[in-house]
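User: Let's play a game. I give you a shape written as tokens, and you guess the letters that built it. Ready? Here's round one.
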């Protein structure tokens, strides 16, 4: 079975995981980086609205960070803000490739996919894009058609240039929009996208306590669509994000595997608390220090995050789910790293955590 997201995806990185369990220093497997928080859309429910200003990373900082991690960190996830709007976007993709990043994913609203400089950089360097559909049952026909049209265009360019770029879609789910899953997904699949990924809509980002809204009926609707989707079109979700299963951890272990750096050059505990001052781990953007990953203060801050007091636990974001798995290994509740990867699962984009 092929999955895109699971709490166990972190166990794909066995060498790093074994080293971490042996209390050794490791480089992260994946970097999530915001080039800027600037965006052409102004969505009130957006997690990036937690950033009070509109910072942009300097190319020099991007170069230093990617060169430092390159060879050790193989996954890069560009988010934002709208990454394709940033002046540094094409260079950031190229520099990542030059530094040995194996998988590069770009999370985008898709509004600039028809711009030559964006499409060219994507086709040349990126592994996949993930186009976010926002409030999709209520999106106007014209808005949705515009996005699908740009996807069609990009797909044509991919075929023409024989680019390995894949086009993914991400759709935020709620109980209310579950009944529209089938209709919207069919439209998306026929536009030339390769896959779709569903994840829960969350609220309370600005308060630093993101949590999912009601998701009843969503998993059933996704399963129904999956059973009838065209062959070759990938339908993915992160099923553990839709359960209420208990999460326990003593230390935000995932911060050692997934390095989250905002457009302010600051390293945050996890993606779910980006731009929240109380969750800063380090500030390598202020004065570059190649050893920032292993500074005593950073390690102590990571170790101090506990599930019983972590305010963003209710989001069941990927970081907290990775923490739970790693904690079980640390507690020896699971016998080995190898056992933890249940069954015959393989991962699409294993370096993109
Ligand atoms: C804030 S967007 C920024 C990147 C890009 N501008 C875009 O629109 O995809 C990054 C991610 O946040 C997710 N997101 C936005 N609003 C959300 C919400 N209310 N709950 C959960 N995820 C959300 C999007 O689906 C996307 O995957």
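Assistant: Ready! My guess for every position:
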């Amino acid at each position: 079975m092929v999955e895109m997201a699971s709490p166990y995806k972190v166990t794909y990185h066995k060498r790093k995981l074994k080293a971490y369990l042996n209390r050794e220093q490791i480089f992260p497997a994946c970097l999530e980086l915001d080039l800027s928080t600037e965006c052409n859309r102004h969505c009130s429910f957006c997690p990036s609205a937690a950033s009070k200003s509109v910072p942009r990373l300097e190319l020099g900082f991007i170069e230093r960070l990617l060169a430092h991690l390159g060879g050790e960190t193989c996954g890069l996830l560009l988010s934002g803000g709208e990454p394709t709007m940033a002046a540094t976007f094409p260079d950031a993709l190229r520099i990542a490739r030059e530094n040995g990043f194996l998988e590069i994913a770009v999370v985008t609203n898709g509004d600039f996919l028809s711009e030559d400089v964006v499409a060219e950089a994507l086709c040349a360097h990126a592994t996949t894009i993930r186009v976010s559909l926002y409030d999709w049952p209520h999106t106007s026909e014209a808005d949705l058609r515009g996005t699908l049209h740009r996807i069609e265009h990009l797909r044509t360019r991919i075929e023409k240039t024989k680019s390995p770029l894949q086009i993914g879609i991400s759709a935020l789910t709620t109980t209310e929009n579950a009944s529209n899953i089938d209709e919207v997904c069919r439209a998306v699949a026929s536009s030339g996208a390769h896959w779709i990924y569903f994840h829960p809509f969350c609220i309370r980002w600005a308060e630093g306590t993101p949590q999912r809204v009601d998701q009843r009926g969503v998993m059933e609707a996704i399963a129904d669509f999956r059973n009838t989707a065209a062959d070759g079109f990938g339908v993915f979700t992160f099923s553990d994000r839709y359960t209420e299963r208990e999460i326990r951890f003593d230390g935000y272990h995932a911060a050692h595997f997934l390095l989250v750096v905002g457009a302010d050059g600051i390293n945050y505990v996890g993606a779910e608390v980006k731009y929240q001052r109380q969750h800063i781990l380090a500030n390598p953007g202020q004065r570059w220090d190649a050893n920032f990953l292993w500074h005593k203060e950073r390690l102590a801050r990571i170790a101090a995050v506990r599930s019983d007091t972590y305010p963003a636990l209710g989001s069941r974001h990927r970081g907290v789910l990775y923490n739970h798995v790693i904690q079980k290994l640390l507690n020896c509740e699971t016998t080995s790293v190898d056992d933890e990867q249940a069954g015959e699962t393989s991962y699409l984009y294993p370096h993109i955590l």
